[in-house]
Amino acid sequence: xxxxxxxxxxxxxxxxxxxxxxxxTLHSATAENRMKFNLLNKETMTxxxxxxxxxxxxxxxxxxxxxxxxxxxxxxxxVLSPDEIKAALPKSTQTIDxxxxxxxxxxxxxxxxxxxxxxxxxxxxxxxxxxxxxxxxRSGKAGIAKVVISTKQHLAALMPSGNGLVLNLLRxxxxxxxxxxxxxxxxxxxxxxxxxxxxxxxxxxMAGDWQPDLFHDEFREKLMALVDQKAREGGLxxxxxxxGEEVGAASAEVIDLTELLKxxxxxxxxxxxxxxxxxxxxxxxxxxxxxxxxxPVRKAAARKAPAxxxxxxxxxxxxxx
Length: 321
Description:
Largest sheet: 7 strands, mixed, barrel
CATH architecture of the domain at 11-34 and 89-173: Beta Barrel
Helix content: 25-40%
Number of helices: 7
CATH class of the domain at 11-34 and 89-173: Mainly Beta
Strand order of the largest sheet: 1-2-6-9-8-7-5
Order of helices and strands: EEEEHEEHEEEHHHHH
Structural class: alpha+beta
Distance between the termini: 37 Å
């Protein structure tokens, strides 16, 4: 069963190439569904956190005592201040700037990193959006673009998908490892015509349509079944709330067992829903730990107003590498 559709707008801006300017919004195309466990004190059932400590002394460090350093050589670091890091951040243009169109099949799968659904923002963007989608579909091309989401610049490929478009964030060239040294078979390793025919027959016998619902995360399903069984048998443990997270009877919510289990696995109270302020704080911490991009994206989307239309003539696109 596919994850539910996300209607939350994570980014708002426009697709821009040549004189074309299409207002669009980005929506998450994936959902993190792996089991998430929290560390608990076995005796007191309180949550165990990660402290920042000095590795040489084991002493806890305060935030103001910590600086960021980049290792240039072994044990040789250059320290950068928050202002220096901030000055290097890319400026957000609120546009998906397409710099080139390439054959979609030429993009190696190892470059694909994270997909986002792209939707037209308002009725005015419907026609140019559909035109770009059909043009990409008929030409077999993908738009190679640069986009700033929150404070991070990404390389991306804009591709048609069903009635919409998908923006696939790509890895930069220096993030993809070289294959030199891998023992892949070369031209000296040959297969006979008979072997190839038999292999093709086997593939054909196992061929079918792509049906993702036929495949399941068996490990997760077994663990969730075990969690459900233990919960029904009285195995729920009361987690002691952190200071400021205590919930009074007046603010308690009625929730079903499935939601209760989910909150328990996320480190929230197994008996009651958190207070609104604590709930938001916990959600921010969880998102930052499991998806480094989405939390800042949501914050950026909340701060920024929809991009205004603009027309610009771009320089001839350079060949994408």
